[in-house]
Amino acid sequence: MVNLAARPLSAAAFAPFGDVLAFDPAQARPVNSGNALRADLPACFAFTAGQPKLALFRVQAQRLPIAVTVLEQHPNSSQMFFSVSSDRFLVIVAPTAPDGGPEIGKAEAFVGRRGQGINYRAGLWHAPMIALDTDGEFLMLIWEQDMPEDCRIEILPTPLHIRSDQS
Question: Residues 43, 141: contact at Cβ < 8 Å?
Answer without folding.
Answer: no
